[in-house]
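quick one, 88 residues, struct below
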Amino acid sequence: MSQAPEVSRRPVVTPTRVVIAVCLIAPFVAMLWVGSYAKTDPAFIGIPFFYWYQMAWVLISTALTMIAFKLWQRDQRARSAAKGGASQ
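---
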């Protein structure tokens, strides 16, 4: 019975991938925890907290998604280079 040779691979869970996950999960947690922002004060330029908090998260979510995407691209290039493949 022959065994296949062991393939050395980098770990699937890396610190970079943990940061990516946190960047993508944070907006969901912030929006699903309604009790933290279900109030009217403090108002910002006359807009109740409930509304401007959600609008702020639109911008924050965009920034976090861009960060996650750039980190993912860098991670994939590093994995491709470690395999000896060409980067995109």
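The chain has a mean pLDDT of 86.
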